[in-house]
Amino acid sequence: MTNFNKNISNLPFDITEHIAAYLSTKDLIECLCVSPEWNSIFRPARYRYVNLRYQLYDNFRPSFSIFLKTLEQSVKKSKRRKTVVPDTPRIHELGSSIRDLTMEDGLMSVKTMDKLAALCPNVNKVSFEWQLYPKSKINIKPTTKAFRSPHVFFEHFHPPSLTTLDLTGHLDGIPIVDGYPSFSETVIPALHHVPQLEYLSFGCLMISVTIPQVEEIHSCCPRLKGLKLHCPEGTPRNTNMINSPIDMTTITPALTMEKFHFPKKFWSHPQICELAWFKYIILKYPKLKELHIVSHGSVHIPTEEGGNFDSSSTTANLVLKNHFINLESIKIGFFGGENSTAWPQLLKDIRDITLVDSGMDISSDWIKNSTPSEIIRLNLPKLPNDLNTLRHFESLRHLTLTQDSFDTRTFAYPELPVDTVLESCQALETLAAKDYIITCKQLSLPRDTKDKSLSLLKEMIMDMVIFEDNKVLTHVGERCPNLERLHLNKCDWINTNKTPFIRIHMPQNWLKTVYLREPAIRTTDTRTRSNNFRPKCISTYFSHKVSNSAKVTNYPLYTTIRKRISPCGAVVEGGYANSGSNIESLIDCALNDEGHKDDMPTCFTLDVLGDEYYDFYLTVLCCRGFGGIYYNEARLELDKEENLDYFEKKVILPLF
């Protein structure tokens, strides 16, 4: 082991960091426990993603101080070891491993900003949020909160490796009588310090962005590849800047731009801006690969004549692909909720389409008139009138059905026959659905048609759906032998057979990842969601295939945590504060927080993950309040195929 320690110590840090990126959290923690040498080598990998939100306020300042001291001690330890043993490769500092940093304005002084910049020189992504405070509420002391802008922070913190920046401004709820700062006053000065930026996202409900200001963005960041703008829903404060004219002949194309996003709140003044903005997008971004133009209210896509995309428009033959040759993905919708017979022509030859307007009629003619054979990824806001028309999508690999048009009076959701969808889309690999009642016309496959009806589905994501029967997922398992990922988020089961538990019985499938969050059973056969309806969280049993023969295994949660039985099932229990002591002690150990032991009921979420050997481990996430508003989370184990940043960003501080 000594020789092996020496060999791995001689590897450059970039190599060991690359190795650690392929390790699951379980494997990474095991590496930390091998020896002190391995601990010093792999420990920095735990600091790739750091979330410092809320750490800069009075109640959390001790935590932030501990974080800074930990980074400083790492630097001192590295220098001391190099001095004592000159031939030993220098231990990499923890701060140098931080790549993704989430920040928020608070009581950070200029001196602290400089210290943080020195300790974290290799950050390539920063998410920064700030509040638009009234001047009367700000301390005279020069802190990040006092500046009402991110530019002072980035004046001191601008590592050369920074390529991704996410800026979000908030209003603290108190009216600001002295006016709101403009985009040119707040964001543009910050961008002058990061000319190497490649991706920028900006959002603030009180600050509008104009075409000239977008030109300023590209002037500050000439390498920009992606731009997302989240702007006011109502009338911006400075309408003069919105109406300011611009000479389109002076526009220089940004040939590096690949992604441009317009959230639905962007188009606040369709009568003024739509023609200018559309011309600007075409002239400025000819190399776009991804475009989001989601409008709001009665806004329509602008054309040369300013008309709508319908059969009566003289510009109905406009094809976006002709203007954006490299366009691969588009998100479009909320254009007055009207049908547009020209949309199939407009979206011709685009392979990734997301429609977000539930008011449009997704008829069979609409699908046939488009280019369904070319589409590989489709996101629909509602079910087509005839599900059988999905057969025209011969190459469709990913289908997402997000129902956002349920009856607001009864909260009734439409039914989604999952077997019909699988029959219609033979090449489908990923099926995602939200806010549907999942049904199955035929819960078992006839023996003579089993081989012919098999699906290529590998991933199934169900979000806030209602399962009609326990056997629906069993049918999916029979039809989809290649299913590897099952994601169930806040799903309900209708208790039609009076059974006191939810059984996810899929013995044929070698699942690699199973995600269960707050499963619940309905005591009555109700098919609606009501604001005052509180489903009862009950036990959930999961069974899977452990060998060549099917086998059902049911283990209680505490056994799984204590002994890490492999292979094992998962049981989600509780939903109230009197949950098992083993769960609470585990959360205590992970979070070091007593906040969940209050009078509020506590919900627990289990993330059951496994690898190809079917070793299952558990992740416990703690929510406050029934049905849960997250106030803290602990990521204990992670599937090696998952991205670390999804959960790690939500942890207040990484484990030191």
TrEMBL record:
This is F-box domain-containing protein. PROSITE patterns: FBOX. InterPro entries: F-box-like_dom_sf (IPR036047), F-box_dom (IPR001810), LRR_dom_sf (IPR032675). PANTHER family: F-BOX PROTEIN-LIKE, OS02G0160200 PROTEIN. It comes from Circinella minor. Pfam families: F-box. Signal peptide: none annotated. CDD domains: F-box_SF. Residues 5-52 form the F-box domain. Gene3D superfamilies: Ribonuclease Inhibitor (3.80.10.10).
